[in-house]
Amino acid sequence: MQMLTKLRPFVRRFLKEASDMFEMYIYTMGDKAYAIEIAKLLDPDNVYFGSKVISNSDCTQRHQKGLDVVLGDESVAVILDDTEYVWQKHKENLILMERYHYFASSCRQFGFGARSLSETMQDERENDGALATILDVLERIHTIFFDPDDQKPLSSRDVRQVIKRVRQEVLQGCKLVFTRVFPLHQRPQDQMLWKMAEQLGAVCCTDVDSTVTHVVALDLGTEKARWAISNKKFLVHPRWIEAANFRWQRQQEEDFPVARPKEKGKENAADAPISKENGDKNAADAANAKKGNENVADAGSTKEGSKENADDAANSEEGSKENADDAANAEKSKSDGAASGATGSNAAECHQKEKQLIKQEAEDAAAIVTKKEEEHDAGDEATPEEEYGGVAKYVRGGRCVEAEVAAAAAARRGKKWEPEQAAPFWVATS
Q1: 234: which DSSP letter?
Q2: Which end of the chain has less neighbouring CB within 10 Å, N or C?
Q3: What is the mean pLDDT of residues 70-79?
Q4: Angle, to 10 degrees, between the axis of helix 311-331 and the axis of helix 265-277?
Q5: Is the CATH number 3.40.50.1000 carried by domain 11-164?
Q6: What is the pTM of this model?
Q7: pLDDT tens digits for 321-358?
Q8: Which residues make Cβ contacts (< 8 Å) with residue 336, sequence separation at least 6?
Q9: CATH for 169-255, among 3.40.50.2300, 3.40.50.10190, 2.60.40.1220, 3.30.750.24?
Q10: What pLDDT does 275 receive?
């Protein structure tokens, strides 16, 4: 198994400064060989970790990490990890790190629905990235734990209480109400986001009143969301709480706005000119669709009794969708006149040519892949350089494959090929 590893920005300084405060271990669920290689990468001069490298073969419980293999009492251990469920017995010791999704394969592996840092050609900043943020938290915890004014002897102090205290300062003074964030018929108090907010020091409730400071919502179409706007309260997306949890400080509310419901009526209006070009009948249908949008909006407005009611947008969407279907059906009509008939004929001809071209490309791609596989199976096992020379190559399943072959294989499956797809096991480590 081959692996490409990208070190997180600020990691060198982080290790140097953290080592002045803590005795550090590497603890991974990977095997021993992987753990040793990562240790060499993080600590090439063997300054920070020495033999303090723990792998899955050292664990005493399957699929779980435990402090029983670490020299030291639980009351003085601080854990940094991006995976919470492996520390079921030691959550109070855990500082949860934000995952480092540098490669696209990492986003796909963990179901992260956004582009990776490499795809956006960006990276975390060293001065305020994840490691710099956590280093500040560790310094605060260390300072409080060894506070000389504390009357307790060191042997009776507990770092878990210090972590809890620092965490509760993040959203202290905030009173939150959630609206349409949790599933119906389930207790909000049992939801992870509710518990997270309370751990950060916020007070959570189910009803609004004058003491509420924040309303947490996914859209503006709820009564509580409108209440927040009219009463000048903070209206934030749930990601505001998650960001505070990772960053260990209250985030700017304006950076986490609640989006308005999407309006499809505007899209239908943009389609109207296209319908008009295809014939008078389509233009009339498009005009009716536009009028239908207005009628639906008026009906929604009358029902709710307020023009600023965000629910109108939802009603308008349903009416717009029906009208858009009518416009689309009218657009497909072949009886709109000679002009539209000629357009339909040209479109059919282009579509047929495109199908033939796609079929030919697929056949060519299949032939290339088959030829390469036969050549590889027939010959002796060669080194990547001997087999592919100077052609760009990527790792897949332990052997190297030319970019053109990988692209051809993807084309045969009707997919677009990307370099990261050739190595789904690539990971980025912190």
Answers
A1: E
A2: N
A3: 95
A4: 20
A5: yes
A6: 0.61
A7: 444 444 344 344 333 433 333 344 454 555 555 556 55
A8: 278, 279, 280, 281, 282
A9: 3.40.50.10190
A10: 43
